[in-house]
């Protein structure tokens, strides 16, 4: 019989260090469990999250109290129905399969080759700083249609926005950094928006400014910020997670090197294994029951994608990285109307361009024997360092 939510005490620091033990405890307690440090009812079960994502009338994206709104403005991620449908449609031309293949994949190849050119003469590096962060940043600058923006700047903006969106502890310094990043992005948009209005092109900003229904500058700004948040960290962290998964499973790496079509499997498994976007929030619009838990109108629920993608009721041996795992739907790109618009672009960038080039250009790639990688986060999760060596 459904009951009121259980609760547990866990700190944000503990979640950031390793959320998976907590996710397992929550799953044992109920479908939605109150975690006071997050100010959310956390949902960790695969089927419970799918149920919520299929019912946006009850589990609404529209959420006036969302941290995302406070940090980035009222974006399409916090809208439902026709309003969401229109704003999503305004960015989709930049992500069409034909546009990705014709315009973006060749540019991704050029950027990757240039970064690897700079590494080939070396014998060790931290792939986060020297490759994954600049790769994701430079590709996103191209996709957005920004000009004169350094990759280090957009990487900082993205991290500041993500930190702000996950600032459930109310840290004032984090909030100030997010505000500064938001203001800098507004300036970057202002510098190019008239150019894109006059010259239609494949970029996201051009797509927005030539949409059938005119968008306000406020709408454009908010949606660009959402794209900078998720559109940078997802490819960056999925690059690093896939490389980490393969380097810690040498037999799987051998299989991939022998059959490059398996790079796509490795990418999908990495997104499941460590979901870069690990949690997002929904507002309960009316009294309801989710699984075994009674929820009240205006409750805030955190859909823990990182937990759902390791739900043992869905995936066998879920904590293992296994590229030979039977193909099953995961939630690494979300679900329902808010399924990630950039999914194909990310699959092409990472699975078809980045991974083959890394392992081809950096022979005998392996983890650094003296500097283990570090993984952090729960709202957004991935390696924050990935020291590697190659050659001899």
Brief overview, please?
The protein has 392 residues and is an alpha+beta fold. The protein is built from 15 helices and 13 strands.
Question: Which features would summarize this protein structure in a list?
Answer:
three-stranded antiparallel β-sheet; 392 residues; 15 helices; 11% strand; alpha+beta; globular; single chain; six-stranded mixed β-sheet
SSE order and pairing:
Blueprint: E1 6-8, H1 12-17, H2 20-29, E2 33-35, E3 40-43, H3 46-53, E4 59-60, H4 67-72, H5 81-91, H6 97-119, E5 124-126, H7 127-144, H8 151-165, H9 172-198, H10 204-209, H11 217-247, H12 250-258, H13 262-273, E6 279-284, E7 288-290, E8 293-295, E9 300-304, H14 305-308, H15 343-361, E10 366-367, E11 374-376, E12 382-385, E13 387-389
Parallel strand pairs: 1-2, 3-9
Antiparallel strand pairs: 2-3, 4-6, 5-13, 6-9, 7-8, 10-13, 11-12
Helix pairs in contact: 6-7, 6-15, 7-8, 7-11, 8-9, 8-11, 11-13, 11-15, 13-15
């Amino acid at each position: 019989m459904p009951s009121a939510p259980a609760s547990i005490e866990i700190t944000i620091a503990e979640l950031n260090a390793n959320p998976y033990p907590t996710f397992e405890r929550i799953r044992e307690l109920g479908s939605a469990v109150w975690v006071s440090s997050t100010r959310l009812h956390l949902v960790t079960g695969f089927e419970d999250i799918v149920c919520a994502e299929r019912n946006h009338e009850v589990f609404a994206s529209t959420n006036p109290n969302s941290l995302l709104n406070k940090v980035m403005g009222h974006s399409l991620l916090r809208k439902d129905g026709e309003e969401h449908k229109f704003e999503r449609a305004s960015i989709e031309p930049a992500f069409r399969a034909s546009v990705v293949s014709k315009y973006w994949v060749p540019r991704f190849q050029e950027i990757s080759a240039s970064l690897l050119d700079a590494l080939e003469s070396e014998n060790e590096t931290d792939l986060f700083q020297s490759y994954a962060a600049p790769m994701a940043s430079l590709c996103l600058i191209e996709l957005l249609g920004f000009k004169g923006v350094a990759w280090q700047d957009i990487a900082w903006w993205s991290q500041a926005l993500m930190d702000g969106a996950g600032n459930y502890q109310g840290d004032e310094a984090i909030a100030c950094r997010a505000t500064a990043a938001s203001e800098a992005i507004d300036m970057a948009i202002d510098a190019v928006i008239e150019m894109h209005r006059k010259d239609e092109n494949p970029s996201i900003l051009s797509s927005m400014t030539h949409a059938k229904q005119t968008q306000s500058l406020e709408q454009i700004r908010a949606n660009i910020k959402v794209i900078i948040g998720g559109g940078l960290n997802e490819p960056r962290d999925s690059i690093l997670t896939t490389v980490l998964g393969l380097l810690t499973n040498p037999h799987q790496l051998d299989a991939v090197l022998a059959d490059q079509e398996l790079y796509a499997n490795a990418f999908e498994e990495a997104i499941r294994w460590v979901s870069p976007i690990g949690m997002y929030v929904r507002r309960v619009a009316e009294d309801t029951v989710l699984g075994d838990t009674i929820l009240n109108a205006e409750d805030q629920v955190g859909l823990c994608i990182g937990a759902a993608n390791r739900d043992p009721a869905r995936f066998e041996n879920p904590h293992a990285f296994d590229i030979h795992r039977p193909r099953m739907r995961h939630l690494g790109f979300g679900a329902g109307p808010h399924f990630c618009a950039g999914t194909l672009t990310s699959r092409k960038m990472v699975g078809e361009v980045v991974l083959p080039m890394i392992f081809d250009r950096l022979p005998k790639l392996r983890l650094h024997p003296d500097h283990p990688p570090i993984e952090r986060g729960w709202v957004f999760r991935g390696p924050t360092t990935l020291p590697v060596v190659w050659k001899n």
